[in-house]
Amino acid sequence: MSETDVRAAITRAHHEEWARVVASLTRRFGDLDIAEEAAAEAFATAVGRWPADGAPPNPGAWLTTTANRLAIDRIRLIFVRDTDWSQIVALYDQLVRLDSSPIVALNRAIAAGELDGPEVALAAVDRLEDRLAGYHAYHATRADLLRRLGRSQQSRAAYDKAIELAGNTAETAYLIRRRDQLR
Predict the structure, then answer these.
(1) What is the DSSP letter of 155?
(2) Tell me: the pLDDT tens digits for 60-74?
(3) Phi and psi dihedrals of 126, rounded to 5?
(4) Range with the poorest average pLDDT among 19-28, 44-53, 74-83, 95-104
(5) Which among 1, 18, 26, 45 could disulfide-bond with 35, CB atoms 3.0 to 4.6 Å apart, if both were Cys?
């Protein structure tokens, strides 16, 4: 596909798909600003990728999918930034006093990891191994923390164990995707 053809495809997609992409995202997320920002980023991504990859067979679907993923990423960032993790850890501390189960401790470790970093969370999670070794979420949590620490080989092994223990196909597929994203 020539550079002229790619430019024409991007221009055509912008004219034909912009409103549809923004409307779809606004319906899904209920926020016009996020929808417009994600749509603009998707078109910018198309400008960067389509010259090398060629325009996709269905540009509207490509743009909608790309914008949807970008909107989700933006919402996650807003959530993490606006979350008071110290308050969540304090609430888990209260819950641990009422229910000292290893599942509550695992969830508290995850919250502590958001507050104090993955190394602190991993140390707390590893202390639960004897009680949670047969629980897939324990291994999935370890895998994610190890990934965040750049320990890909150990993360892969933890994902493999979580996949082995996962109870349904949706969880298994998600864990396989996460594992396969490791470098």
Answers:
(1) H
(2) 999 999 999 999 988
(3) -60, -30
(4) 74-83
(5) 26
